[in-house]
Amino acid sequence: MKMTGPLPDPLPRGEREGLVIDSARLSASLEALGRIGAYTDESSGLVGVRRLAFSKEDGEGRTHVVNEMRAAGLEVTIDRIGNVYGRRRGRDDRAKPVMSGSHIDSVATAGRFDGCLGVLGALEVVKTLNAAKVTTRRPLIVAFFSEEEGARFGTDMLGSAVAVGRIPLERAYGLTDRDGNVVRTELERIGFLGTAPVELAAPHAYVECHIEQGPMLRAANVDVGIVTGVQAICWHELVITGRSAHAGTTPMSLRADPGMAASRVQLALRDLVRSGRFTDQLRATMGVTQFHPGLVNVVPNRVVASVDIRHPDDAVLRRAEAELVELYARIAAEEKVTLVHRQSARTPDIAFSPKVQDLVAKSAAARGLSAQRIVSGAGHDCQELATRCPAGMVFVPGEYDGISHNPREFSTPKQCADGVNVLLDVLTALAEEEGP
Amino acid sequence: MKMTGPLPDPLPRGEREGLVIDSARLSASLEALGRIGAYTDESSGLVGVRRLAFSKEDGEGRTHVVNEMRAAGLEVTIDRIGNVYGRRRGRDDRAKPVMSGSHIDSVATAGRFDGCLGVLGALEVVKTLNAAKVTTRRPLIVAFFSEEEGARFGTDMLGSAVAVGRIPLERAYGLTDRDGNVVRTELERIGFLGTAPVELAAPHAYVECHIEQGPMLRAANVDVGIVTGVQAICWHELVITGRSAHAGTTPMSLRADPGMAASRVQLALRDLVRSGRFTDQLRATMGVTQFHPGLVNVVPNRVVASVDIRHPDDAVLRRAEAELVELYARIAAEEKVTLVHRQSARTPDIAFSPKVQDLVAKSAAARGLSAQRIVSGAGHDCQELATRCPAGMVFVPGEYDGISHNPREFSTPKQCADGVNVLLDVLTALAEEEGP
Fold it and tell me: What is the ipTM score, two decimals?
């Protein structure tokens, strides 16, 4: 008998069934993971997290989360770049799975939410479904990807980029940290050099919950961010070469001081942003600067520095980059130094699935949460997955202007729970969808 | 019978006796020492010298010079801070000795003249006297002092400062390099932890030949510099603390970026010099800058930097320093960061002995060399010795604007020989002087 009548209920299934995640359990889970790699920040006295990819602390964090996955009944697979997948069976277990996750590696000065909320949030969704004895049609996979931050081996979204085939495994294996340690060896050392193939079979969809890492949602007093995509990102590595000279004797006019050039680039970055010619959405940062030989009484002969610029519109970023490169040339000429820049990363702006955005909006509305569309300023694993399947993100606001990559990073238990409840709705809705 | 008649001959004894140093031998000697710790500079392809204090290379250099001293008949003594003294007997061997020397340690990007010319030049004087079978009335001592550069343990003129009692031996022993190595252990490792007391018995006089390390003499086409003293020096170590934040999301207005503050200090230094308010003799340099944590996508939370300012007039330097400290405060307030500065070195301007200056001038005139009075921009061991006895310096011009602390550092064989011939005259004149 053929059914006729209204279209399928647009309300996501999770909400329809009245499921609600356990906020206290989620907070406790974030705190437990945050204790692994905890350190006390010198300047603020706050306790932060330092869990650089493939470090001893990352290994401990991974083992902790794998144990949590297994305790929640997930079947754990580790691939050859250390990505970890925890699978929950579906009613139709051969249907393409719905995936959710993020990363648990961190920068050297992190808080406990960046990445971890997405992993532990997805795990909280599983625990909620377990408690309610709900089995979705499609399997669910909770994932965490390796070296998302790029803080140790210099390439961000490393694990997810390898999984979707953007970066070859062998190239990833050969990346080195500052001390010359190689990815493959370090993965092996912490016991997470898995045997599963890295090539990811395209999931039905991928959804990631993440803190905003910026001030917009909190300033607008909004509960949830509907992420429309990720802004375009461009990294430059600068090597500025001048001429070392005696600090006490060499007149300014005879110097070729690469440090002076680096400082001028730094200030030029801010001028570029403040000019307004690239809208107020341009971001520009010099995160690395190191003078060589680095002696009090020697004019440096070489400065290594980095530039990070971002904009939601790739075309605008391209214009900003072109102007920056002209600035490099002008400053180098005026300071009589050589400035070589290498584009060490470049990603265009990425648009997330409209379907996932709509599901996020509907869930928020059904739960009485305020929501707002937002472009992600940071890169995320989701942008890699977006090349393989419909993908999207739920953003959670952060206190203190949404500060992140800082021990002060903090989202309240309610902010976290709101985001993960929306994640629950979206994942369960997607997991009921028809098709292979 | 009492002599009457003209005053003693004002012409220095060396010249009177027609002594001339062996320029080729001096050059060969500089080259031989320059091969120890030689390295190839990445940017220029030039061969430079890297012989940091108490390193393996410094140990090899020291052994080489000690062997040279012994070959020249000198009796070698090593004191407890590693200063090395090679003594040549005088006709009146109990009279106070005349001392000459410098240092053989180097910065990480050095040439082969800085310091070495003074040590090997003094040794060349001894070889010349040996060859001529001349014995001076007073003993002569050829000295080289430990860690003059301060490039490894952060305190320049370390060995000579300990010898004259300005720095206590135990404090010197406890100084550490960047890797936490301690002076005493490092001295012991290279076999130069001597047993002689460090307290230097005041010599009759001390004279040091050194490259100018600046452009003045060469620009004026002058053969020899008569050094009137050393300019005042002030070092600041800056620790600037801001707030780390995500580079991709945090708007400029919400940042507290210590890197931005460091760059502004760097440019302010040059503005201070260019203002002309401190005459054109002010020098200002930022030799160290390092961002922490030093990641492409993280606004730094801490920057460590150094400032070196110098001026021939201590009162002027004091004014410049006061203005600089005000600048620190203003920049820190505007950038919403904390800037703490520590005065890590401070020496007032030092005047050298008028008698030694006159002897240098007379020798130059007698040898048909052009000469000019000049203030030293760099600190030298001579300024430490000047607190214990009449002391002075002979400067030798350098090619390429007198560049130093750079593999390009170069003085021609003639320039070196001119300086050392003057040194010969001055030392032999002083060594004939009457008295205890």
Answer: 0.77
Three-class SS state of B85: strand
Cα–Cα dist B407/B385, whole Å: 28
Q: CA of B292 to nearest chain A CA: how many angstroms apart?
A: 8
In the structure, what pLDDT confidence band is assigned to residue B401 with cuts at 50, 70 and 90?
A: confident
- Ranked by mean pLDDT, the top range of A14-18, B8-12, B89-93, B213-217 is B89-93
Average pLDDT over residues A8-16: 44
Listed by number, the residues of chain A in 98-157 with a beta carbon closer than 8 Å to a beta carbon of chain B are: 107-109, 149-151, 154, 156
* Dihedral angle computed from the Cα positions of residues A8, A14, A17 and A23, in that order, rounded to the nearest 10 degrees: -160
Question: Around A205, how many Cα atoms within 13 Å sit in the side-chain half-sphere?
Answer: 25
Query: How far is B114 from B378, CA to CA, in rounded Å?
Result: 11
The pLDDT of residue B2: 38
B173 CB neighbour count, 10 Å cutoff = 16
Q: Which amino acid is at B133?
A: K
Is 3.30.70.360 the CATH classification of the domain at B232-347? yes
Homologous superfamily in CATH for domain B13-230+351-432:
Zn peptidases (3.40.630.10)
Q: Which of A237, A249, A297 is the closest to B287 by Cβ?
A: A297
A401 neighbourhood in chain B, CB within 8 Å = 250, 254
Residues forming beta bridges with residue B224, ordered by sequence position? B371
Closest of B30, B10, B5 to residue B420, by C-alpha: B30
In the 8-state DSSP scheme, what is residue B417? Answer: H
Q: Measured between alpha carbons, how far is B12 from B361 in angstroms, rounded to an integer?
A: 11
Whether pTM exceeds 0.95? no
Q: How far is CA B363 from CA B370, B397, B412, B433, in A?
A: 10, 17, 20, 16
In this complex, do B377 and A213 lie within 8 Å of one another by their Cβ atoms?
no
Q: Where are the domains of chain A?
A: 13-231+349-432, 232-347
**Is the pLDDT score of B43 beyond 80?**
no
> In CATH, what number does A13-231+349-432 get?
3.40.630.10
Please state, in angstroms and rounded to a whole number, the distance separating the CA atoms of residues B270 and A260.
9
Q: Does B165 touch chain A (CB under 8 A)?
A: no
- Cβ distance A149 to B297 less than 8 Å, yes or no, reads yes
Residue B215 forms contact with A (CB below 8 Å): yes
Joined tokens for residue A291 = 């003078």
Instruction: Write the residue in A107, A273, A404 that is nearest to B293 by C-beta.
Output: A107
Q: Check CB contact under 8 Å for B298 and A213.
A: no
